[in-house]
Amino acid sequence: MNYRSLFIYGLTLCFTSVLIAQNDQVINREQMVKTQLEARGIKDPLTLYSMLNVPRHEFVPKNLVEHAYKDGALPIGSGQTISQPYIVAFMTQTLKLKSTDKVLEIGTGSGYQAAVLGKIVDSVFTVEIIKDLAVSAKSRLKNLGFDNVIVKWGDGYHGWPEKAPFDAIMVTAGAESIPQPLVDQLKNGGHMVIPVGPSDNVTYLVSVFKKKDRIITKNLFPVRFVPFTRKQ
Q1: What is the DSSP code (8-state) at residue 156?
Q2: pLDDT by residue (tens digit) across 9-23?
Q3: Which terminus of the chain has a smaller tally of CB atoms within 10 A, N or C?
Q4: What ranges in 127-188 are assigned the alpha helix state H?
Q5: Which segments of the chain does DSSP mark as H helices, in order?
Q6: Considering only CA atoms, which of 192, 193, 190, 124 is closest in space to residue 163?
Q7: Left if phi > 0, otherwise alpha if psi is -120 to 50, otherwise beta: which for 60?
């Protein structure tokens, strides 16, 4: 076998390996949706479609790719995590999203939750206070083709007033109370989902509905999230 033939053979093997790996990840996502989401009551078709089509393994550190579709949160650096698939799906479903919606996310992290939202809605504006995470998430989302997801490095407590109002807001860090700027930037008739509770006590996932400039809140269930970080 000459050098040219060896080169072509090597490329073929490499291409075949990539296809097999990609197919394995598709199977992993299908299993995740079936056993972790549908089996636990996630029924919204748009949420299930998005969870099935966003490659979660692209949003975790390379040394954790084999764990990407397992039932749990994973570290992504800087003391932050990518949430458990069920929590991502539940929070997404809770917002009752439409394809025309404009959504604000606070706490970009690796960009996974923003990508899940981006598969469903018209546009996502996401704020991350840790610069390294904001920069890497922006690059990752761009490379994966999520052109409708815009990342900003900043203090999420203030939301993104220049882009308000929003049809829905998602907060992916535990806050001691619901930030008033986020309430102000939510449309009437809009939904917010946010973990709320004292830092030394139980944090609940809270559903917030805004009606005629008043908010109606409902505690959903206890959760564990990294704390809501503020600039000093």
Answers
A1: G
A2: 454 544 444 444 567
A3: C
A4: 131-143, 180-185
A5: 3-32, 45-53, 85-94, 112-118, 131-143, 180-185
A6: 124
A7: beta
Residue 39, burial from CB neighbour count under 10 angstroms (0-12, 13-18, 19+): exposed
Using alpha carbons, select from 89, 87, 83, 231 the residue that is nearest to residue 158. Answer: 231
Coil, helix or strand for 192?
strand
Read off the amino acid at residue 90. Answer: F
Q: How far apart are CA 128 and CA 138, in angstroms?
A: 10
Nearest C-alpha neighbor of 108 from the set 88, 89, 133: 133
97-131 pLDDT, tens digit each: 999 999 999 999 999 999 999 999 999 999 999 99
Type and span of the H or E element at 102:
strand 102-106
* HSE-CB for 50 with a 13 A CA cutoff: 28
The answer to whether residue 199 is catalytic is no
- Which residue among 5, 78, 83, 199 is the active-site one? 83
Compute the distance between CA of residue 163 and CA of residue 161 in angstroms, rounded to an integer: 5
Q: In what order do the strands lie in the sheet with 123-128?
A: 149-153, 123-128, 102-106, 166-171, 186-196, 203-211, 214-223
Find, among 220, 216, 183, 191, the residue nearest to 204 by Cα: 220
Tell if the pTM clears 0.85, that is, is over it.
yes
